[in-house]
Amino acid sequence: MQTFLHILLLSMAELAHLLGTIIVVGLVLGFLEKRATAFIYRAFGWKGIAMTAWLGTPVHEFSHALMCGIFRHEIVEIKWLQLKSGDGTLGYVSHQYNPGSFYQKIGNFFIGTAPVYIGILILSIGMYVLLPETYRAFIQENRAGLHPYSGLESFFAFFGHSIGALASYLFSIENLMNPRFWIFAIAGICISSHISLSTADLKGAWNGCLSIFGFLVFLNVAGFLFGFRTSGLIARISAYNSYILAFSGIAFLFSVIWMMIGLLSVWAKKIR
Hints:
Blueprint: H1 2-44, H2 46-70, E1 74-79, E2 92-96, H3 102-112, H4 114-130, H5 132-142, H6 151-170, H7 173-176, H8 179-192, H9 199-226, H10 231-237, H11 240-271
Antiparallel strand pairs: 1-2
Helix pairs in contact: 1-2, 1-9, 1-11, 2-3, 2-4, 2-8, 3-9, 4-5, 4-8, 4-11, 5-6, 6-11, 8-11
């Protein structure tokens, strides 16, 4: 009994190492997006939402569709953008899968959370293409810190360092005078404003998360029976979290900027 409890706790810790960063980043960006959306709607109405949805929503749905293809889910229907849905749904990807396929069940997590890490990836590529010098400077600044972190203290320390470095490089005088920066900024605000996950996204991600946890339990039971340890493998795999956390700063900054624009617009409307 004690051994099984140890395996469960170990599997939970490994699950947190593998998926914790994506979940935390998604929750933070989701909070910022919801606040920004509320302010923008109060200031500009539905037209304010459409100002970012024209790009942000198709990118959001593309992320789901891409992961559906990778995890072999059948796409039933896609709505890339609908501004007059009646219930506020801007877009969706309807998909189905074989419940008997463990691979497809695990895919539910990555399909559900896809807008977070695919959105961050697209923002990173955008910075690489439009602002290559900024991208290189940011990479060099964070290169020494791109390693697996442990604990909340190092998590937030690394995130804070990345945000500070990114802000100093991204909002330089040279960039502010560069037309490509403004193209990147507009695209960044649009994409960041539609990264958060819907209720359906979270439900699907939760189902996939349970499947991944079950796989980790199975792997650790096998490790106990056959005498091998999984911690080293999990640590190597979870190293990608440092990249997600570093580049999530792009979405974080643009989300904060859009939220402040919305808040200031609401204040200005009240003063009139």
